[in-house]
Design goal:
The chain has 115 residues and is mainly beta. It is built from one helix and ten strands; from the N terminus they run E-E-E-H-E-E-E-E-E-E-E. It is globular.
């Protein structure tokens, strides 16, 4: 299944392919403030519909995740990084996907504050 996503103003638009079987809520200093619900997919399942130069990037802590956000509306639709095996991954904020019933998605809580 393909999902359409974007920031609030639409400057960052993307498509992501896969079945959402769950999401992660992290309590690290960044995720707690953003309120993201993250769905992890292989990076090649993420297709940008707008040029990468239209995005801004925020790095913090160990600088291993590129938190992508819109410089106009400030919304964080996804992040990019690698999994423990070195595979390129995308962490999609499912709150930025169209037509998702958030109440039906099981959420796993991750203690990122302790990591």
């Amino acid at each position: 299944m393909k999902h359409q996503g974007s920031c609030h103003c639409g400057r960052i638009a993307f498509e992501v392919e896969g079945e959402i079987q769950g999401a992660m809520a992290c309590n690290c200093s960044m995720c707690q403030r953003k309120g993201s619900l993250l769905w992890f997919v292989p990076h090649d399942k993420l297709e940008l519909k707008t040029p990468p130069e239209d995005m801004s990037t925020y790095l913090f802590n160990k600088h291993v995740i590129s938190h992508r956000f819109c410089p106009v509306c400030g919304i964080h639709p996804f992040g990019e990084g690698t999994d423990p095996k070195g595979n390129k991954m995308a962490a999609i904020n499912i709150r930025c996907l169209e037509g998702i019933d958030l109440e039906s998605v099981p959420v796993q809580h991750f203690d990122g504050r302790s990591k």
